[in-house]
Design a protein that fits this description.
The chain is about 75% helix and about 0% strand. It is an all-alpha fold. Helix 3 runs antiparallel to helix 8.
Length: about 325
């Protein structure tokens, strides 16, 4: 039976660091995630009380919950399939229960330099190797899923804020139930929730970007190779998830900036309801992308950042393919 070695991406330190950072961040920052959920709930209740009706996020709660549950089930299924077909360890066409157990044992011995232990029954190495593979695949898919869920949370928060902006915009020049200053208070709440979200997901997002860039560059051969449909499916799935995260976060940030700029231009006509200095501060924050998903302050996901990431992947992928042809 032909035994595969680990792919280049699995051997990269950034891939290992990504998995460790995900586990540690989820454990150490679990209270931050909990505080974020509580803050989102309180903000939603406050808006509902002010508006006198449930927000769009509340009305779509069941749909969002179903979508999140479906994503979790899909990722669990994907991780289990990768584990039990021996992806990255065993050739798919050679799969059998005996070959699977033998491949897992060989993989575990080579990975941890345990080939000298010849007296230990192979079944022990097989079981532990399968558990290591299971951990590797689960940490990968759920690390990516956590980033996607945070992006969708950010999108829902901005959607609620934009809905409040449009409601306030319709009341300009009238005796409105909400003053422009209240919209600015909602903006401060949005900034607080976004900062909390970035504080929770920041380390994972940084590793997600670096690990993703290395994977899509070094594994471009999997997409073009016709020898393994599972490798192609894996590459396409994770690439689609990667692009969904980037474009959703960038669109949400741009949508917030666009809608808020329109509202500010209208609010500026109603002095002294909105102090001009406050409008200048908010305008400068929008220009600097103050509200957006950020990886520890190293970057903020905008359309410009997305273009840079995609161009980097394409550039190095072309270099690798040209080197293979040479």
């Amino acid at each position: 039976t032909e035994i595969y070695t680990l792919s280049l991406h699995d051997a990269l330190p950034i891939s290992i660091i990504y998995k460790l950072v995900y586990i540690v961040s989820i454990w150490r920052r679990r209270f931050v995630f909990q505080a974020l959920l509580n803050s989102v709930t309180e903000a939603e209740a406050h808006r509902t009380e002010k508006l006198g009706r449930p927000g769009r996020h509340s009305r779509a709660g069941n749909k969002t919950q179903s979508f999140g549950f479906a994503l979790c089930v899909l990722n669990v299924f994907l991780a289990l399939v990768h584990t039990f077909v021996g992806y990255g360890v065993l050739k798919l066409s050679e799969w059998s229960p005996q070959a699977f157990l033998h491949a897992q044992a060989v993989y575990f011995r080579k990975l941890y330099f345990l080939e000298v232990y010849v007296g230990v029954p192979e079944i022990y190495f097989s079981l532990v190797g399968a558990l290591v593979q299971c951990y590797r695949h689960f940490s990968t898919v759920f690390g990516d899923l956590s980033v996607l869920m945070c992006v969708l949370t950010f999108k829902a928060l901005v959607a609620e804020f934009v809905a409040s902006l449009r409601l306030q915009k319709n009341s300009f020049g009238q005796t409105a139930a909400f003053r422009p200053s209240e919209v600015l208070e909602w903006y401060e709440t949005l900034k607080f929730l976004t900062n909390t979200l970035n504080n929770a997901i920041g380390p994972i997002l940084v590793c997600y970007m670096f690990a993703g860039l290395s994977y899509y560059v070094n594994s471009i051969r999997d997409l073009l190779s016709m020898s393994s449909w599972l490798a192609q499916l894996r590459y396409v799935y994770f690439l689609a998830n990667f692009l969904l995260v980037l474009f959703t976060a960038a669109y949400t940030q741009q949508h917030l900036s666009h809608e808020f700029r329109i509202w500010l231009s209208d609010a500026a006509r109603y002095q002294p309801a909105v102090p001009s200095t406050q409008l200048i501060v908010v305008g400068s924050e929008l220009a600097s992308c103050r509200v957006g998903l950020s990886g520890l302050g190293l970057f903020t996901i905008t359309y410009g950042f997305v273009g840079t990431a995609i161009s980097t992947i394409l550039t190095y992928a072309i270099i690798i393919l040209q080197a293979d042809d040479a």
